[in-house]
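Posting for a labmate who doesn't have an account.
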Amino acid sequence: AIVCARETVGNGHEFPKTIVPGEELPEMDLFLCIGQSNMAGRGTLDETKDDLEPLEGVYLLDKDGNMVPATNPMNQHSSVRKEISMQQMSPAYSFAKKIAAETGHAVGLVVNARGGTAIESWDPDEGNGDTLYSAAVRRAKQAMQYGKFKAVIWHQGEANNSTSEKVEKYP
């Protein structure tokens, strides 16, 4: 078992902070989880359903490029997220739980979502290289030392559905 320190965040939830140095990690199947509010985690956490317990065999890339045991909120280490109290339950949680159980492989998640963003915010050709896309790529490269990427999980919300013109621009 991985032993880790715990940290309490502003909303009172505790999550693993770091793995004890020297702990050997398994080779992981990596998944990049990006998008807007739903991927960032706007579903309500239910402490009575063990929503705050670490997921067995699942790890999150933290802000320092280390893999730590995965617990909600899954977007807690995002380099582009909004305040921690807004991060709750996201599809990354149930996805990772299911993948780890079905495959028996260790799962490494790079969750780097930001609520309220339009598809244009993720355009790699905008912002002189300082985009949500470039932030996700930087974090994905950090994770590559832990395994191989298997997929990108993209969940975009409502920012591009207010007009037919915006809908048509969405790829």
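Reply:
Got it, the structure tokens are right above this. The longest strand covers residues 147-155.
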